[in-house]
Structures are given as C-alpha cells and as structure tokens.
Amino acid sequence: MKTITVLGATGSIGTQTLDVVRKNRKDFHIAALTGGSNVKKMAELVIEFQPDYVVMKDEEKIKELEYLIPGEECQMLCGMEGLLRVSKLRGVNTVVAAMVGMIGLRPVIEAIRSGKDIALANKETLVTAGHIIMPLAKRHKVRILPVDSEHSAIFQSLHGEKRSQIETIFLTASGGPFRSYSREELEQVTVEQALAHPNWLMGPKITVDSATMINKGLEIIEAKWLFGVPLSKIHVVVQPQSIIHSMVGFRDGAVMAQLGTPDMRLPIQYALYYPKRVFLDGERLDFEKIAEIHFEKPNTDVLRGIPLAMEASRIGGTMPTVMNAANEYAVAKFLNKEIKFLQIYDMIEHAMKYHNRVGNPSLSEILEAEKETYARLDAEWRII
Ligand code: NDP
Ligand code: MG
C-alpha cells in the first residue's frame, strides 16, 4: 500500500487522481488532501477518502468545511503553513502536485526535502525553479514522475533507454481551439471560446494556456529540466487529434512514441504505480476509425506562446519566472473579462522587457521576481 498526499485535490488533475485511487482502494492510503476554495467538493472527498489532514486556502474556508462535515475527525489546516506541513508528513511515499500555478513551488520543494517522490502535474514549479528542483531531487534520491501527458509519454518512450542517446524530443500539441485563426479573428475571441478545448477537459488556467500555446512553451521548459536536454533538441509538432502524446527520436533514427485516447488518468496512474502498469478502464484507440494521423507546424506568428517561453528560457535566471508570473496574472485578467485574448502576450512581453534578470536565483529571489511582476502589472496593465 502506498500513502499519498494530493495537493490540489479539488481540481481537474486532483479529482482524476482520486478516481484512480477510488478504483484501486486497497493500494492507497490518503494522508492529506488540499484545496483552495471549493469547500463543497472537499467535503465530498473527505467523506469518501477519510484523509488524516485537509488543507484549504484560509480560515474562512475551513470554517465552511467544518460546518458541512461536523463529525469528521481529520485535522484541518489552512494557507501556505498548512500546505508545507502536509507536504512533509511522515509515512507519505508520494506527493501528487496538482495545484495550479506558482503556489505549488514551496510545497513541492518541502516534499522533496522530506524524501517524497513527486507525481508532478504542476509544471509552473519546474518552469520557475527547475534549476533548484532537479538537483534537490537528485540529492534527496526522490523521483520526479511526470503527470503532464506529453512528459509522461516521453518518460514512457525513454523506458530502458539512455538519455545520452536522445537526438530529438518531439513534443506534440493539439494546437488548441484557435490554431487556424488569423490575427483579426483572434482579436475577437471570447473567454467562452478559449475555454472550449477540442480534446481535453482541464482547469480554466491551463485551458487558456493551451489556447495561447503558452502551455506548450511551459512544457518545453518542463521537458528541458525533466529530461536534461537543451532547447535545441526539443521540437513541437502539432497533432490535432491528441492521439500521439509525444515522441523521442534516438541517435540511430528510431522514433518511440506513446499513443492513447486523451485520458489524463493514464499518466496519473503511471506516475503513481511506476514502473508497474495496472489495468485502466476506458476507451481504447481504434485505428480503423482513426484511419489517419495528421501533423502540422505550430502557428507561432500570432499564437506567440512558444517563442516567448523559449526566449525566457534562453535568457534564464529569473526570466522564466517573470514570463510565467505575467502569464498567470494576464490569464486571471482575461478570465475576468478585463483584457482581450491577445493582450495576454503583450503583458508577458511587457513584464519581460522591464525585468532585470537575476542569474541562478534562490527560492526567495524567484518569489521576489514573482512579486515584482505582479506589482508592475498591477500598476501598468491598463496602459500596456
Ligand atoms: P484546476 O484549476 O482544475 O485545479 C487547481 C487546484 O489548485 C484546485 O484544487 C484548486 O483549489 C487549487 N488551488 C488553486 N489556487 C489555490 C490557492 N491559492 N491555494 C490553494 N490551492 C489552490 O487545475 P488543473 O487540475 O487543470 O491543473 C493543475 C496543474 O496541473 C496545473 O499546473 C496544470 O498546468 C497541470 N496540468 C493539468 C492538466 C489537466 O488535464 N487538467 C494536464 C497537464 C498538466 P479549488 O478549486 O478548491 O480552489
Ligand atoms: Mg500537457
């Protein structure tokens, strides 16, 4: 039996993680579940999974939770203090990092320091602090097991192979809902359109990131850290049906790929059971129905997510943090209908342009760069 903590249990990845647990109850004990504001969802999860600890965003949310489930005996904590505490609980083998955004950074670092394996969905942590996380994981002999479907596909394709043999990583992308839109059409897109992803049902932030292609940019940086390859070896290939989840090309010309229906439970389950494979219900690929798989070049002229992220990664230091924080800020504003879709790129560019990069930043310098980005955009977003 494995004891796990799920950070971001009330979200899309969190609930799918708990679906895997639900179907394999004898294999897991839940030490802690964390959420932000969704008290109703958390109340259901607590009743069903009986965790030892629960963490919510603040005291008010804890009070609401206590009111909904008065008889439950689990310990209820809140805020960053609570998150840090449950990230290092004794007896936990794996921490599932499924929170959205940079808020996951400190809990992930705390979990690694306490020797927990990390099932990592929260890509923002690697984007901003890959240079801290990867060596730290090595030092503490913990595994960073990718949950992001592309990275899980690469990880699976690398099974039994030497990383030194990698020639190219082919990161596949669906291209999002706007892949064939012109600039004029993109000027007009609404939040509702951006939230309608053609293949995947995900949380709102990553759904917008997929529409802007920032998600693919973040994933390039995530792949760079996870697999220790330079940016020049990572190529994005658009494969609109999301059947090939990514591929690895080797020095002898062989290309290994992982295929499947778009179902996040597979990479989640693979990370939880690695290196074992267990049964997963659900649809299987039917190659006669698919008939053909088609590929395109990504549209990087208007959907500038990939070039912006690559530039941030090339500059390095605190720049990926600024790119990521500006994106988090801008996506929240877009979802709130305060800015237009294309202004997301303008805000990221603006924040990057005025940032003085700090090389090899410490955790506190990363958090400082995040704060600085928010302060700059708070002051200037109306004039960008
Ligand atoms: P969701 O928005 O669905 O869930 C986010 C989770 O984080 C929720 O549990 C939410 O709590 C919690 N959270 C948000 N803000 C706070 C906060 N301030 N304090 C504490 N908890 C907070 O996101 P997803 O599940 O879609 O994505 C999670 C991560 O996984 C992201 O980094 C994303 O990029 C990555 N990912 C997601 C994929 C997917 O298919 N969804 C695929 C690949 C990667 P609450 O809802 O209770 O407020
Ligand atoms: Mg992905």
Describe the structure.
The chain is α/β, with parallel strands linked by helices. The protein has helices at 12-23, 39-49, 59-68, 79-87, 105-113, 123-139, 149-157, 183-187, 191-194, 204-212, 214-227, 265-273, 287-290, 305-315, 319-335, 343-353, 363-380, and strands spanning 2-7, 28-34, 53-56, 75-78, 94-97, 117-120, 144-146, 166-173, 234-238, 244-250, 255-259. Helix 3 (59-68) links the parallel strand 3 (53-56) and strand 4 (75-78). Helix 4 (79-87) runs parallel beside helix 5 (105-113) and helix 6 packs parallel to helix 11. The longest helix is centred in the last third of the chain and has 18 residues, at 363-380. Magnesium ion binds at residues 148-150, 219.
Provide key terms for this protein.
47% helix, 17 helices, seven-stranded parallel beta sheet, binds NADPH dihydro-nicotinamide-adenine-dinucleotide phosphate, 15% strand, binds magnesium ion, alpha/beta, globular, four-stranded mixed beta sheet, 384 residues
